[in-house]
Amino acid sequence: MRRTLSALLLLAASVPALAIDYRSIVPPVAILYDSPSKSGKKLYLIKAQTPVEVVVKLDGWSKVRDAEGTLAWVETRSLGERRTLVVTAAKAEIRQAERPDAPLVVELDKWVALELVEPASPGWAKVKHRDGATGYVRSTQVWGL
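RESULT FIELD:
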């Protein structure tokens, strides 16, 4: 038994951790279901540019988690590669640089979607708002990183 356990531990240590797979909703509105089927119960609608974390893929369906932690199924064709974030803080501040004392570009309300331009230094992300404002937001103020 000890040899088998040791072998399993060595194998587990050699397998790289899987990266979190974030996607965004592409159509203007997508339906989230309780099962991977259009005959499943419709749970709620989710709008374009909303980020989701893909947990499982199964025959044209993806089980996703939203910013509130809700798990549901969506047709995989509704998911795009473009990375977006959503503001989860009561207010989020986009700043000109990756510093809390950098000049403020814009302040955003909760649930506003942002395009992820690139991850920045630890704790920050470079983002773009739909009106064109670009800057840096603290990772603690958004979800989808």
